[in-house]
Amino acid sequence: MNFKFLLLAGGTLLSSTAASAGGYQVTLAGQKNNGMGGVGVGLSLDQAAMFYNPGALAMVKDRGVQLGVNATLARNAFVAEGGSQQRQLRNSTVTPFNLYAGFGPAEGKFRAGIAVYTPFGSKLQYANGWEGRTSLTDITLESIYVQPTFSYAITDQLSIGAGLMILAYGSVNLQRDIPLPDSFGHIELDGKAENKVGYNAGIFFKPSDKLSVGISYRSKIDAQVKDGDVTFTNVSPSFASRFEATKFGATLPLPATTSIGIGIMPNENLTIGLDANFVEWSKYRVLRFDFDKQVNGNTFSESKRFYQDALTFRVGGQYKLTSGLTVRAGGSYDMTPVKDGYVTPETPDNDRISGTLGASYSFGKFGVDLSSQFVSIQKRTQTQQDLLNNGTTDRIAGTYKTNIVIPGLGLNYNF
Amino acid sequence: MTTSLFRKCAPVVALMGLGLTACQPDLEDDFTPSAGTADFSRYIAVGNSLTAGYSDGGLYLEGQLSSYPNLLAGQFRAAGGGDFVQPLFQTGQENGSGYLRLTGIVNGSPVTAPVTTNLALRAGATAARPLYTKYTEPVNNLAVPNIRLSDIETAGFGNTQTSPSNALTFNSYFERITPDGNNQTYLARVAASNPTFFTNWLGNNDVLGFATAGGAANSLTPTATFTDKNNKVIDALTANGAKGLVATIPNVTNIPFFTTVGPAFKTTLTAANVPGLVIQTGAALGGPASGNRKQITTADIRDASGNGRQLFTLISSPFLTLLNQRSGRAWRYVYSQSGQPAAGFPLFLAAYGIDTTATFGTSAGNPIPSLFVLDDVEQGQVLTATTAFNAAITAKANEKGLAIFDANTFFTRVAASGIVTNGVTNNANFITGNLFSLDGVHPTPRGYAIVANEMISAINAKYGSNISQVNPNDYRGVKFPQ
C-alpha cells in the first residue's frame, strides 16, 4: 500500500463532527466495531484491531485490507439563557474514515500492518448571528494518525502488539466574531499541526474459545500549531489599528486513552464484547493562543477548559446468522470530560448515550460492512451564574442538546 | 430538499433501512413564552428620558426604537402583548432633538459634535424653548424627558398657549404629545391611559438635575412630596387592577458623567505637585468670605479605584486645563448656561465675588465653579434623597404587589464589576464601556437592552410569566466614526 496515497486520501476524506466519544475524540475506527457499540479491545475481529488493541492483531487469522467511511450527521439545538429562540447549526456532513492493511505469514506467529484513522476531530458551524458568536462561529478540527503496527503471538493464548502512532496530519480552523462597540469584526485562525509521534500498544489474552480479554494504551500527543494564519475581516477602520496579528501558535492535547475489554463467545456464532475506556482529558487545562502582534491589546488569549478524566463503557455483540451474513447491535455510555460551567461551543458536551446497529455480508474473500450509530448528547444547561462562579464568562449561558447519526460503510478484502 | 420534515428528520441509512433518523433536537417547547398572572395586552410605559430612549444628550429615532419599553413590548408580544405605539420621530426628522456624535479620538480624548440636521423642530422653536413636531395620536410610551415626579400635577405642563406664564414649568416633550391648548397634567394623562400592564420609572430627575449641576442649580424634591406624587401615580396606574413593574432610582454618582474626568485630572495634578484646589459649592450668592468656597485636596479627588470623594462633572473637562491661569472662560460658560443676556455677566461675577484676574481654581477669587464639582457634602444630599425616594417607591410597590427592578442595586453592581452579556464584557466606563452614551448619563441601546432584560427577570419572578430576554449584543454601544 502506498503511504503517500493514504495521506492524500486523508486530505479529502478527513474530518468528523464530534462524534461518539467525549470531548473532541472520535471512536469510529472499524466498521464492524461501530455496529457493536464500539467495543473491540477484548476482541480480535479484523484488522481494525490495530486501533482497538494492537496486541490482538496477531490473533486475527485473515490478512487483508479494509476501508471504512462514516458520515456524521450532527444536529444541535441551543437556547440562550433567558431566551426562547432556538439556534441550530448550519448543517454539515463530514466523513471520518479508516483504512487498515494487515500482512503476515499464513501460519506464522506475527502480523504486521498499517492503520490510518481519525481519532480526534470536530466540525461545527453555528447559525449566523447566534448568541455565542463571540465565543465561536465555526470550528474544524482534524487529525489523521498513521500507525505502522507489529503484533506477535507469544503463545496460542497470549499476544502482544504495538504501533508507532504518527500524527501525520492535523489542522485547526477556528472562527469567531469580535465584539466592537458598534459592530462585529471577525477573526479566523487557521493552522496545520506539526508532525508528531506517539505509540499504541496492547496485550491480548484468550484463555479459552469462549473468553478473551485485552488491554491497550494510546499515548498522548500534543498537537502543536506554529505560524498559523490569523485573518481579520469586518473590522471597521476606527479599530483596525488594534488588530495587527498575522500569526498564531497553539497547542491542543490529544489525550492518552487506556482501554480494557472482554470478549465472550458462548457459541460459534455469537460474540459479545464489553469495553471500558479511560481518557486522560485532565491534561486539557487551558486553550491558549499566542499571537505575533496584538489582538485588541493582548498578544495572547487564554480560556479555561479544566477538563476531567472520563470513562466510557461499551457493550455490543454480533451474531452470525448465515455463513455470509452477520448482524450486530450495541450501545455505549460516555461520561463527559467537561465540567459544569466549562461547556464551550467547541464541544457543547455532556454525557452521551449511543445505540448502534450493524451488519456484514461476505462474498468469499470480499466483504461489505454496514453500521449505524445514533448518539444522543444529553441536554445540558449552564447558567450565567455558573460562568461567573468559575470565571468562564468568555462562553455563553444556555441549554444545548445534540443528536448525531453516523451511518458507515466498509469494504474489506482478505487474502 | 428543504422541507422541514427533511430538516428535522433527515432519513439516514438508506443503506441499511434501519429507520434511524438524524432528528433535529427541539428545545423550544421547554422555553415557550407565557404571561403567567400578568396581562400584557395593553402595556403603558410611564417615565422620563430613560423611558423615552434618550441617548447621547438627545432624543432621536434610533434611541426611541431601542428604548426599554419598546424592547419589552417586543418580548411581551410572544405572550399576548398588543401593539406598542411610541411618538416616533418620522423619517426626515429622525434626529429629533439633535444629539452628540463621536467625531474622533484625539490624543486619547473623545471629540464630540452636535448633530444638527434632520431635527424635528417646528416653527417658533428657540434654543431656550425648543418646540418639536407634534405627535398627538394615542401612544403607549408616555415618557417625557426632563419630567420630575414633582411635576406630575403641574397644569399646563404641556401647553404653549399660556407661555410665558408657564415658562418655568413648560416641557417641550410633553407639549409634543399633548393636543394644542390642553392643560392636562401628566398624572391625568397617566390615569386616562388604562393599562393592563405598566412600567413606571419616574423620579430620577428629582435628584439627577441637582447632581449634574454639581449642586449649583435645581433643588432636590422633598421626600414628602416625592412620596405623595409617587403614591398618586401608582394608584392611578393600578386603579383598574393593572399589574406592573416599578424601578428604583440609581445612585447617580456611579455614572460616567461623574467618574470620567476626576481620575485623569487627579493624575495630572499629582504629577504637577498641585496640593489642592479651591472650588465653589452650592448655589448661594456671595464672595470668598460667604462660605460658598471650599478647599479640596488633590488626594480627595475620586480616582478610578474609588479613592477620594470629590467628583468632577463631564462638562468640566475642557476648562480644567485652565487651572492656575488668569482666566474667566469657565465663568463665561457658566453664565451662558443661565440663558440671561450677555450684558449681565459683570453683575453675575460681582454677585459671586469672582475676580477673573486671579488664578483659576487655585485662588478663592476665581474658584472652580460649583457646576463642575459634586462635592462630598452634595453627594451626601443626593444619596440621602435617593435612599428616601427608593424607600417610598419600594413601599408603594410592595403595598400594590408590583414587580420591582432595583435599578440602584443593579447599576451599583455594574459600576463595581461590569456585566458580561453572552460572552461580551461591558462596564460603566465612558465610551469604551458599551453601556453609557456620549452624555455620560443615559444608556446606549446596549445599556437599554440590559435594562429591559433585568426588568423581564423581575416580571417573570413576580408574575410567574416566561418572557424571553433580548440579546444585548444585538444592540450597539457607542457609535464610532466610520
UniProtKB/TrEMBL annotation, chain A:
InterPro entries: OMPP1/FadL/TodX. It comes from the Bacteria. The keyword Membrane applies. Residues 1-21 form the signal peptide. It is a multi-pass membrane protein. Keywords: Cell outer membrane, Membrane, Signal, Transmembrane, Transmembrane beta strand. It is found in: Cell outer membrane. Belongs to the OmpP1/FadL family. This is Outer membrane protein transport protein. It comes from Hymenobacter volaticus.
UniProtKB/TrEMBL annotation, chain B:
Keywords: Hydrolase. One of its GO terms (molecular function) is hydrolase activity. Gene3D superfamilies: SGNH hydrolase. InterPro entries: SGNH_hydro_sf. SUPFAM superfamilies: SGNH hydrolase. It comes from the Bacteria. The keyword Hydrolase applies. The keyword Hydrolase applies. This is SGNH/GDSL hydrolase family protein.
